[in-house]
Amino acid sequence: MLRSILTVFALFAAAAKAQTSPAASTSIVGTWEAIARSSGGLGSTISFGPDNTLSFTIGAMVDMSYRRVGDSLLVTSAAGSLPPASIAFLHDTLVVTRNGSEQRETRIAGEKAGDPLIGRWTYQHYTGVAAYEEYAADGAFHLRVPIRTLTGNYVVAGNTAVMHLMGDGGGDRTVNFAVLGDTLQLTWNGQSTRYLRATPLAR
C-alpha cells in the first residue's frame, strides 16, 4: 500500500485532471509543493537544483491557522482544531505543552524580533523522522513531515524536462512544464500536476 503511494509515476498522474498549460514558461529551478493533497494529508515536494540535481519527497503536508494569546496557542482548520497548548521560549528552543505532554522544537529560520513564535521550527516526529512547523506573521501554520525522499537528476530542453530518480519507486519520466509566477505545472500523459514555489525545509 505504502509502496504504491510512493510510486513517483502515480503521483504525477493522479494529482489533477488534464489542464491547459499556462502560456508563460520560465526556469524550473527551485523547490515546489504540490497543491493537491490526499484525504489523509499526504503530498509531494519536488526540487530542481541549479546543478541539475533532483529530489522528490512524499510526506504529510498540513496547512492550518494559529492564534496566540500570551502563552496560549490555538491551532485550527476547517476540519477541526488541535487541543490548546501553552508555549515558552528558551533561547532558540520552543517548548510546546499540550495535553500534559511537552515537545521541544529548535528554531531553524525566522527573525527573533517581535513575536518569537514566528519562523520555522524542527523536532523529531514520533515516527523517527524530522518534522517541521512554520508559524507565519499572517496567522498561517504549516506542518511538514517528510516520509521518503528519492534523489536523482534532470535535464531540460525547452519546456521539456527528462527526470531520473533512483531507488524503489523511481525511474525515468519525460514531462512538459510551464512556470507562471510561483506556480509550476508538470504535464505527463495528458494529465497535469500543479505545484507552488516553496522554501526548502532545511536551510
Task: Set out the fold topology.
Elements: H1 2-6, H2 8-14, E1 30-34, E2 42-48, E3 53-69, E4 72-77, E5 80-81, E6 85-90, E7 93-98, E8 101-109, E9 119-124, E10 130-135, E11 140-157, E12 160-165, E13 171-180, E14 183-188, E15 191-198
Antiparallel strand pairs: 1-2, 1-15, 2-3, 3-4, 3-11, 4-5, 4-6, 6-7, 7-8, 8-9, 9-10, 10-11, 11-12, 12-13, 13-14, 14-15
SSE order: HHEEEEEEEEEEEEEEE
Largest sheet: 15 strands, antiparallel
> At the first level of CATH, what is the class of the largest domain?
Mainly Beta
Strand content: over 45%
Overall description:
The chain has 203 residues and is mainly beta. It folds into two domains: 2-58 and 152-198, Lipocalin, CATH 2.40.128.280; 61-146, no CATH class. 6% of the residues lie in helices and 58% in strands. It has a 15-stranded antiparallel β-sheet that branches. A hairpin with a 2-residue loop joins strand 7 (93-98) and strand 8. The longest helix has 7 residues, at 8-14. The protein is elongated, with a radius of gyration of 18 Å. The two termini are 32 Å apart. Mean pLDDT is 86; it is low at 1-25.
